[in-house]
Automatic annotation (TrEMBL):
The chain crosses the membrane at residues 6-29. Keywords: Membrane, Transmembrane, Transmembrane helix. This is NADH dehydrogenase subunit 4L.
Length: 39
């Protein structure tokens, strides 16, 4: 039971990290597109 809880917590942390990375890359791409549009 205790190990299951730890596994679940690690999984949640990984999902949050992945979402953060995706959001950061998305923001970077959008900023680059805006810069290109301005040029």
């Amino acid at each position: 039971m205790h190990t299951l809880l730890i596994m679940h917590h690690i999984l949640l942390m990984n999902i949050i990290l992945i979402i953060l990375i995706i959001n950061m890359t998305y923001l970077l791409i959008m900023m680059k597109i805006k810069v290109f549009m301005l040029l």
